[in-house]
Amino acid sequence: MTLDDGDRGFVGNARRFFWFPREEPREAAPILPLAHAWLFFTAAGGGVVAVGWTEFVDLIGVWTVLAMLDDVTKGVRHRWPAFIAGLLVFWSIGKLVRRGLPAPADPDWADYPALVCGSLAALVVFAAITRVRPRPEVRPPD
Length: 142
What we know:
Layout: H1 10-18, H2 31-51, H3 59-74, H4 79-100, H5 112-130
């Protein structure tokens, strides 16, 4: 494998990641795998906090980004706007929840609600934007 042997090499794969071919069909992001991923993030994050490994609770955010990136690499419809909107919603909902909720009695649980709410909102926004229908092709008049 060389660095630029068409669509099979490194350059072709990098190009496909950023610029998906127009002729490839683009589907919406599947909801059920995203819901399963969110349930796993929530349970794993709660388990991590319950055990006392509070420095690892931020993995909820990392897992959320990786779940969205997985669908981006598969070439879902409107993938980059959906990914950026998901990141922005994750950050903003996390900030709002951190500011809006009173501090819990146990400081280990301080970031957990914000991360869980932010990850749910990010995945919902990501899936919703990928469901927007594509623009119809405008053809010049003959």
